[in-house]
Amino acid sequence: MENIIVEIMNGYGYLGICLLILIENLFPPIPSEIILTFGGFMTINSNITIVGVIIAATIGSVLGAIALYYIGKILNKDRLIKIVTSKYGKLLRIKPKDIESADKWFDTKGNKTVFFCRFIPVVRSLISIPAGMSEMPLLKFILYTTIGSAIWNTALVCVGAFAGDKKDAILDIIDKASHIILILIIIIFIVGVYIFYHSKKRKKKKN
User: Fold this and answer.
1) How far apart are CA 163 and CA 89, in angstroms?
2) Any idea where the domains of the chain sit in the sequence?
């Protein structure tokens, strides 16, 4: 994968970086950590600049996020409620009021969520879907996505630019850290779901 990334960057420059990051947003398993770090490293040995890589990567991030935002908008709250109340949707054990609660939560916390999730592996792409589903204003979504993406991209590009020959060691550290963060998020999510459903059961027993 690393060779493919380098070839695309060498062949298409900033456009290649923009397209790679756009694809990374649509297909989260492709790691932006590698793309951005290599982009930063290549500023040492080519005519592309750190600022240019950051701008190209941020444009790609925003374009990918907007595509997922509109997917979420198509699969809106009303359609999702229809799905969970259908014959097979009931197997998900999600109730319409759960979706309503999640939508209200996103209405009040959406700005911070979109911003901070840009720093979390995989989640930084997927967060665009609930933003669209909750009909977060597009301009506000673009603003927070751009700011969060620019910070994330700047950090990784600069790491790559200043890593020099140690880029492989840095990539290994970033990759391990990303996996640890993702595992922690999954654990927190599972614990959160467990607590949520058990609190609902307790309320039912009291009633």
Assistant:
1) 50
2) 2-206
The tokens of 34 are what? 């590698």
Helix 96-116 with 138-163: angle, nearest 10 deg = 40
Return d(Cα 151, Cα 15) in angstroms, integer: 20
Global pTM?
A: 0.70
Let me know the angle formed at the C-alpha of 20 by 14 and 22, rounded to the nearest 5 degrees. Answer: 100
- Among 139, 109, 142, 108, CA closest to 128: 142
How many whole angstroms separate alpha carbon 174 and alpha carbon 171? Answer: 5
59 backbone φψ class: left, alpha, beta (φ>0; ψ -120 to 50): alpha
65-91: pLDDT as tens digits = 999 899 888 887 777 777 667 766 565
The answer for residues whose C-beta is within 8 angstroms of residue 49's C-beta and 6 or more apart is 43
- Identify the CA nearest to 35 among candidates 18, 52, 47: 18
Query: What angle is formed at CA 71 by the lines to CA 65 and CA 73, rounded to 5 degrees?
Result: 105
Q: Pick from 17, 61, 62, 8: which is nearest to 39 by CA?
A: 17
Q: Do the Cβ atoms of 99 and 80 come closer than 8 Å?
A: yes
To which residue do tokens 């609930």 refer? 130
